[in-house]
Design goal:
With 411 residues, this protein is of the alpha/beta class. The chain contains twelve helices and 22 strands. It has two domains: 4-252, Metallo-beta-lactamase, Chain A, CATH 3.60.15.10; 261-405, 3-Layer(aba) Sandwich (Rossmann fold), CATH 3.40.50.360. Strand 10 and strand 11 (139-144) form a beta hairpin. Helix 8 crosses helix 12 (385-406). The two termini are 33 Å apart.
Length: 411
């Protein structure tokens, strides 16, 4: 990739994690994702976040720095917004090239700089709102924004140019092309792609910290932000309010209501539970409510989380397996708890063989999620006509509840 001038004296450098990898070792990224680093040049020079120490990432970023006349020898400050290794993994080796570079980070990041990188000197813990004057009209201001999404996360604001370097906040999955770095360079299809990938990134990475997102947005609301430069995804220079509004909306789903949509997740051992899926969906659609359908374990949990996070309604179709929940569904529910997929209208259906038990375990597993369940449809063996009719009816009932509860559609 090539370096890109954002505005006079401010540059973006980037690499792409290629499709086929797993983000954080967990999340599927079929379209890859970018890692962005930034340089601000005044009388003094600061680099804001680095990259992962893997593949040819350091070499690529070094080459892009050289394009703008920057090398470790003339960098005065490293601003560490976030110590997760995709942004700081190269920090140890990079700093050895110029041990006089001053590291600016949050107070909570200092022990991580010590332990992750073995760096103890020239590490400056910022105070919330503190500024750093680089000269030539380039003043950086630092804000503690903890738990978006690590406790030590902070953001950096370039005061004169009104640019927010937000690290993992306002980011998305998806590779970034040299010719489409900014929101105003994207086609309609590309905008739609990054909208979906921003939601998926939020649901996978940030969702459980939504209360902190809301606090962070409140803290930043007094800033006149003209551009947002995240560490993953595109730069928002034409209309940064779009991604801010989306993040505010995503965060609001924690307490609900979410969108007037229903996500149906189902799994079946021998086809008996599967026979009711279409009837449930017909019932939902009879009330003109959008449906997202996933089968486990075949479908990826990262995509399931995204639609479940924004849906006001959840349907779970699963059989009992050895007195308990069908294991792939138990995994989904575990992730829902970890990511706090809360305050949903819900319904469960499923078959059992010699004994039930999934229903009891589901109640215990979702207790902290505060889901409002309709009466389940559960049967032994193969479903009959009565179960088919009841599945349609429950789907319709859930859709009616979702319309009343959500009271809004989402784009």
């Amino acid at each position: 990739m090539k370096s890109v001038e954002i505005t006079k004296g401010v540059y973006r450098m980037g690499v792409n994690i290629e499709p086929g990898n797993l983000f954080e070792g967990i999340w599927s990224i079929p379209d890859g994702t970018s890692i962005n680093s930034y340089v601000v040049k005044g009388d003094k020079t600061a680099v804001i976040d680095l990259t992962q120490n893997k593949d040819d990432f350091p070499r690529s970023i070094t080459s892009q720095m050289e394009e703008i006349g920057v090398s470790p020898a003339n960098i005065d400050y490293i601003i560490v917004n976030h110590m997760e290794p995709d942004h700081s993994g190269w920090l140890r080796k990079f700093r050895t090239k110029n041990p006089e570079m001053e590291i600016y980070c949050s107070q909570k990041a200092v022990p991580l700089v010590n332990e992750f990188c073995g760096i103890f000197d020239h590490v400056h813990a910022i105070k919330d709102g503190e500024t750093l004057d680089l000269g030539q009209g380039k003043t950086l201001q630092f804000f503690d924004t903890p738990n978006i999404h690590w406790p030590e996360t902070m953001m950096t604001f370039l005061v004169e140019d009104k640019i927010l370097f937000s690290c993992d906040a306002f980011g998305s999955y998806g590779e970034v092309d040299d010719n489409a770095v900014f929101d105003d360079q994207l086609s309609s299809d590309q905008h739609e792609f990054f909208k979906k990938e921003a939601l998926r990134y939020y649901a996978n990475i940030v969702a459980s910290f939504s209360a902190f997102v809301e606090r962070g947005l409140k803290k930043l609301s007094g800033l006149d932000i003209r551009m947002i430069c995240p560490s993953h995804g595109i730069i928002w220079r034409e209309n940064p309010a779009v991604i801010v509004e989306r993040y505010a909306r995503y965060a609001s789903y924690l307490k609900g209501p979410a969108c007037a949509e229903i996500t149906v997740i189902w799994g079946s051992m021998y086809g008996n539970t599967a026979k009711l899926v279409s009837e449930v969906i017909k019932g939902i659609r009879s009330e003109k409510i959008p449906v997202h359908q996933y089968r486990v374990p075949e479908d990826d949990i990262g995509f399931i989380l995204a639609d479940a996070w924004k849906s006001a309604g959840i349907v779970l179709g699963m059989p009992t397996y050895e007195y308990q929940m069908f294991p792939p569904m138990a995994h989904v529910i575990d992730d829902f708890n970890r990511k706090k997929v809360q305050n949903k209208k819900a319904f469960r259906f499923g078959s059992y063989g010699w004994s039930g038990g999934a229903e009891k375990e589901l109640g215990t597993a979702t207790e902290k999620l505060h889901w409002d369940f309709l009466e389940s449809v559960e049967w032994q063996g193969a479903p009959g006509e009565a179960e088919m009719k009841m599945a349609f009816q429950r789907g319709r009932e859930l859709a009616v509840l979702v319309k009343e509860f959500a009271s809004k559609a989402c784009d």
